[in-house]
Every structure is written in structure tokens, then in C-alpha cells.
């Protein structure tokens, strides 16, 4: 499920339409581009049709929590995963609908701002409980595997809050989206007992997309979490309300019209399992290769997608790119023309390390029980853009021949 969001342009105030993953916000009216910075979950409100005689300041807003993300888990000799997209009540109240149903998909939502008057009912169910419930879905999924649990990771997850507008008219509580009566009696007072006003910390804020180094404008697709400067060839991520330079490179090509996909190159140190060099990784994961001298000299690093794709593709690309990394030459700091956006941050890729490691192992029965003791420490992270040939339905990586279907990439931008 992807939300459509109505939001006012932070520069001219015109109403613009966004997708949930959008961070680079370009206003079609004033042509100004901003980068949206969020702290904590984004908060949305459904549009209401409350009758005119209901005062806006008497409106009530009930929270529903939404979790979207991929859960990976290892149990027995299996590595499994699940794409989770769930919205649940953030407040227990007998009169409230259990779910929002299809409404968040069927109608645009707005970001909660100080213009939303009324009382926000307090969330009583903690986000952690929602995560546990989401994890439970994977446990239910795994119930027929009677074997011990070794590992679980959330990757690329987002948590948001959608408010359902409500009002009280002649002592009856109404759903303000549909104007249907929800009930009456003491339960209404119980709901109202725990409410709060809008908090300014809920609203996202906006950064001008100017290169901190040279002052030129930064570029990036709408859902790009990393912005590039094509003037001084630098790359930036948002951190603590400003842009910070990141380490990156792009691999040169002799071909024209190449499409570049971003990967995180993570140099790691492990504990709990002996794995210092690339040769150790090949040995531990039981790869059918003759280990050579240069394997032993090569440091251990993982090459993982810096974009969201469904788990099966993420694991396949992570494994195959990590194994084939020696074929990829060292890159330069030159921003390529055609770039796929970075939609998965470094910290998310780090969270996926153990799962990709497990997915690389051919001897899962032997390796997976060791996972609870294995720790990965990231020593260095580099964003690396790799050139891909455009082969119609697929992109094929120049040096390694590793391919990915365009449809899978496209679908990944909605995850
Ligand atoms: Zn504008
Ligand atoms: Zn610059």
C-alpha cells in the first residue's frame, strides 16, 4: 500500500501531491526544491467531512500505527523473509474501528501540521508492541518449522501514524470520514480523557538543496535519500538537520548510456566466527571455489544493494555482488548521468548483513546455529555506483554479468 499525501510547498504554500517515500520535494508552482527531514514517525490525517456546525477545535483524532518493512529470520536450517505492511489501532477503545480498512489507499492523506485543530488521542499501544506483532506474523509463518530460532532482522522499515478524524454530536461519536455513528456512552469520555494538542516536533522540516561545498544545487530523484552535486562531484546525506558529505565512488565504463545502481560497500570485522579475509568468507560459507592467494590477501567486505527491492532479490544481489566484487575496478568521484536513487540507507544495509551472510552459506544447517554469537562491526562504508547495460527487460552489470529485472526495481520503489 502506498499513500498519496497532500502537502503545502514549504516555499510558496501551494498544495502539492507526494508519495510516501518522497524526500526531495520539487514544487511545480514556484520551482523550488527542498529536502524533507523527519524526526520520528511521519504523522498523517485522513480527510474529514464533518458537518459545518462541528467546531474544528472540538475534533478528535484517533491514532493508527502503520509498519512497512521486510523481516528476515533464520530458523533451523532455513533463512526466510516476509514483506510486512500492516496498520493497527494505536489506542484501545471499544468504539473505535479496529482498522482503517482500505481508506488510506483510497483517499489522499495530509501531513499533520499546526493547522490541524483539535485533540489528538494519545497512543497507548507502543510502536515496539506493533513491531512485535509484525514479528509474530513471521513466527506464525514459521510455526511448521520445528527448530530453534537463530536470528531476526528488520530491514528498510518505516513506521508512521495515520489519524482517523472523529467528532461528537449530541453525545454520539462519529467517524468524520464517513459520518457514520460509532456509539455513545461512557466510552466516549474514556477516549477523551487522554488527549493532547499538536506538537511542533511532529512536523517535518525542510532543507534547501544547495551543495554545502560549492553552493550549486543538489540533484536527486524524488525518493533519493542521498543527494549529489554535479558541479563539484560530491555526495551528501542528511544528518542532524544538515547535509554531510559521504564516501562514494562510481565505476568508470567505456560504454555510453549506462544505468548506474548504488551499492553499499561495507568493510567489516567479525567476532564469534573466524572471518578476517575474503578467503575466510568463502570457506565459512562453503563456496565451491578453490581458495587462492589473492583471496587470502583481500579484506572482507560486503557489497549490498543501496535500494529497496523485495527480500529474495536483495539476498541474491547481496550474495552475488559480494562474491564477484574482485571483478569490479576501483571507482572515481564522477556523478553518472543516469542514476538509480538510493532508497536504503547505510544503517539499513548494516542491519541486513547477517541475513545476507546466512543467505550466502551453502551449509546452512551448520552455519545458522552459530548466528546468535556472530557480530559484525562495520569499519568503513562506501557508496559505490556500478554501471549496468540496458537490455530491454533487464539491467545487466558490466563487469560481473549480474542482472536485475526492471520490473523488480520499479516495484522496489513502492516497498
Ligand atoms: Zn512552491
Ligand atoms: Zn558542489
Given as residue ranges, the uncertain stretches (5+ residues, pLDDT < 50) are: none
Kindly report the average pLDDT value.
92
Please report the total strand number as a whole number.
Answer: 23
User: What does the main sheet amount to?
Assistant: 11 strands, mixed
Task: Provide structural commentary.
The structure is a single chain. With 415 residues, this protein is α+β, with helices and mostly antiparallel strands. The protein has ten helices and 23 strands. Strands 1, 2, 5, 6, 7, 8, 9, 10, 11, 12 and 13 form an eleven-stranded mixed sheet that branches. Strands 18, 19, 20, 21, 22 and 23 form a six-stranded mixed sheet that branches. The longest helix has 15 residues, at 127-141. The chain starts with a strand and ends with a helix. The structure holds zinc ion (2 copies). One zinc ion is lined by residues 9, 11-12, 14, 27, 29-30, 32.
